Amino acid sequence: MSLIETHELRRVYDLDSGRVVALDHASLSVEKGDFVAVMGPSGSGKSTFMNLIGCLDKPTSGHYRLAGTAVESLDANGLARLRNREIGFVFQQFNLLPRIDALGNVELPMVYAGVDKKTRRERALHALGRVGLAERAHHRPMQLSGGQQQRVAIARALVNSPSLLLADEPTGALDSRTAIEILALFQELNREGVTIVLVTHDADVGRHARRLIRFKDGKILEDHRQTPLDARELLVAETAA
Amino acid sequence: MRFVEAIRSALSAIAANALRSLLTMLGIVIGVAAVIAMVAIGSGARNLVDQQIRSLGANLAIVTPGNVTQGGARLGAGASSTLTDEDADAIRREIDGVTAAAPFVQGTVQVIAGGNNWGTRIYAIDLDWFAAREWDVATGRTFDPEEVRRGDIVVILGQTVAKNLFGEEDPIDQVVRVRNVPFRVIGVMAAKGQSAFGQDQDDVIFVPLDAGRRRVIGRNYAKDRSVGSIFVKFANEEDIEPGIENMTTLLRQRHRVIGDQEDDFSIRNLTEIANTASASANTLSMLLAAVAAVSLLVGGIGIMNIMLVSVTERTREIGLRLAVGARPRDILSQFLIEATTLSTIGGALGVALGAGAAYLVARIAGWPSLVSPNAVIIAVGFSALVGIFFGFYPAQRAAKLDPIEALRRE
Ligand SMILES: Nc1ncnc2c1ncn2[C@@H]1O[C@H](COP(=O)(O)OP(=O)(O)O)[C@@H](O)[C@H]1O
Ligand SMILES: [Mg+2]
After folding, report:
1. Would the pLDDT of B74 be above 60?
2. What is the mean pLDDT of residues B145-160?
């Protein structure tokens, strides 16, 4: 059984100015442990696809199973539960809550999972350790650099041990060096077994994935496996130079 | 999300916008303060009435000589007194429902005992006084009928006078001099404390009516058995009004006031005077109730407004929370709790302000003030309800947000 299975997934927006087919009969599957880059020009349907497999949106038609669960059949509460357990989101704009510290932000998904305070602390600290920010646990987002904020967001995405990490342009707001650091972190997590789907319009970013899917006008144009560029090596090379 | 954590996070959201939150609470603060002050002033006034009745005696009317202007209490008007103790006898004899008619003469004197000297009020009374005022001696005895009839020079001291003249010593059978007349102390009255108007009611001495009239207070009274005033006590409250009418008729006959000539006396229902205070307190209460209602409504709308602003400002936060697994009802309760926390803090501040205002009004008006625990609980509970009621619509709007739209919002 694949982690993600979509069949003829279609998403149509009905606007006053006419119908927009944002995603058109997309069928694909993603195996556990894979690292997939979703690419394509702006408006090609990447985010629409990502929202659907992230259980934030429902398809107009077609089927989608995540970890064996038929998503179309779920109500708002069921979707919330699935997002909480199975998916970790990483956004371009980090989306950390400004008033609470890094630890509190990482704890948030566990709050909605009903995990008790003590366990939350422990697991959040552990997740911050995984992204190399254990000593920044009590800093607020404002007191952290962009790269550090994105690491906190990644820790938050990981903390409920989801089966899927979904990242929409995670390096879009970062300088190139920091972007490579984040990609190195993604690759490390992937080696540890985390399944990652990463949306990007940047070819340099896409080269770090094991599989590349290219969208155009809502359709899958290209889908192939590739030898990923190792971000760690890039970092070493750059430091040496 | 657990309740305590929800409240903690609500508090931090409120603290993040402290000034705005405070301004938002203002309506609730004023509304609740008005409720607290209203209840405190209302019950204070009621207490005043009770206290007045308790210290004067229930179901009491007072007959005073001359045409006393409304409101001014010229007890014991001097020179031209037209009332006599025979009037009191007639009232006692002929008016239905009268249980005591106590004529008295009042003055101020210096009392000397040994080396001590004390200025106080003197009342020259007869035996009905004790029944009319529902007041008795604590030690010693009251006058016996013979002493009153003869006008013996014996005296009963109020507690304050006894304390100031004799300290810890027993005053009974000691002699005090009033206007050089040696009075023998036969009793000390029970303590009555302050009157509703702050006067020390124990700073007083009592002598038999004739002893006072002939020896101490003055010539005018001695000649014609006239008295300063008469306390008339009735058995029941319903007896007072008809009793006053009958007394008026009786006294007009006795004083030969005919036709449309004005009364040469006036009679007032003391319970009614006390009730006037309560009536004006009621008016104040009504006013405060109106202020409270309007303020709570305005406060509620203010909370609704600020919560709508807050939902709009925090749309991305809501989207993020939904993305990481919050259910719509988690968002609903988060914002409801925030609105309720806001209004409840406002309520608590209002209680403090209202209690302060009630205390101030009580001080100025000379009323006892009472901030009842019940009123506090009701007021805080009510402000919480205002928060829930007016917070519901914004909270529901937050809960209905689409996560994708919310995340995309700037
Ligand atoms: N909420 C929406 N309402 C209407 N049209 C939308 C909405 N979201 C996306 N679209 C349209 O669907 C198409 C695909 O958009 P999107 O998935 O955001 O593309 P990408 O992320 O690749 O830039 C675009 O034409 C876009 O205008
Ligand atoms: Mg996009």
Report:
1. no
2. 92
Size of interface A-B (CB pairs under 8 A): 59
Which residues of chain B lie closer than 8 angstroms to A45, CB-CB? none
What is the number of the ligand closest to the CA of A56? 1
CA A213 to chain centre: 15
CB atoms near residue A218 (< 10 Å): 22
What phi-psi label fits residue A62: left (phi over 0), alpha (psi between -120 and 50 degrees) or beta?
Answer: left
How far apart are the CA of B345 and the nearest CA of chain A, in angstroms? 21
- The reply to whether ipTM tops 0.85 is yes
CA distance B343 to B381: 10
Q: What pLDDT is stored for residue B233 in this prediction? A: 93
Tens of pLDDT, residues A123-139: 999 999 999 999 999 99
Tokens representing A2 are 């694949």
Q: Which residue has the tokens 């985010």?
A: A47
Residue A112 Cα, gap to closest chain B Cα (Å): 6
SS3 (DSSP) at B17 = coil
Q: Which of B313, B320, B329 to mutate to test the interface with A (most CBs of A within 10 A)?
A: B320
B325 touching chain A per CB within 8 A: yes
Q: Please, what's the b/e burial string for B84-120 (b: 16 or more CB within 10 A of its CB; e: otherwise)?
A: bbebbebbbeebebbebbbbbbbbebebbbeeeebeb
CA A206 – CA A225 distance, rounded (Å): 11
For residues B58-75, give the mean pLDDT.
64
Nearest CA, atom 18, ligand 1: A47
Is A45 a pocket residue for ligand 1 (Cβ < 6 Å)?
yes
Q: What is the residue-wise DSSP string for B238-289? A: GGHHHHHHHHHHHHHHHTT--TTPPPSEEEEEHHHHHHHHHHHHHHHHHHHH
Report how far ligand 1's centroid is from the alpha carbon of B95 (Å). 98
Higher pLDDT, A54 or B373: A54
List CB contacts (< 8 A) between A80 and chain B.
322, 325-328
Q: Give B314's contacts in chain A (Cβ within 8 Å).
A: none
**A139 Rama class: left (phi>0) / alpha (psi -120 to 50) / beta:** beta
Q: Do B74 and B44 form a contact (C-beta atoms < 8 A)?
A: no
End-to-end C-alpha distance for chain B, whole angstroms: 26
